[in-house]
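Recap from last week: sequence in, structure out.
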Amino acid sequence: MADDQKHLQALSDDYQKLQNDLQSNIDARQRLESQQQENKGVQKEFAKLAQDANIYKLIGPVLLKQDRAEAVLAVDGRLEYIEKEITRVERQITDIQDESEKKRMAVYQLQTKMQQQQVEPAA
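Predicted structure tokens:
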């Protein structure tokens, strides 16, 4: 019975850790999606600009003129990176959800077993 209690505690701790990891990954995905939307907005603004328009980049407190092609390439590169990161994080979320479900079922089965053992001696 004490071994079952220790095992249940370990499973519960693992489940809680998985839930915390899941929340961290969901937060990361939300941040990435926000960055993706910002960069898509910049990309749309670039599309509206005339070819000879000046583009400036804020570096610290200074605005520096930036080459249009370089700026467009940087935004496109960021979007590509963000999309790959979103895919990676979503895969992690799915894996964690699967593992979490397995732990939850293991906790439920052990609790059921322990309840049945408590009822049996009384009968």
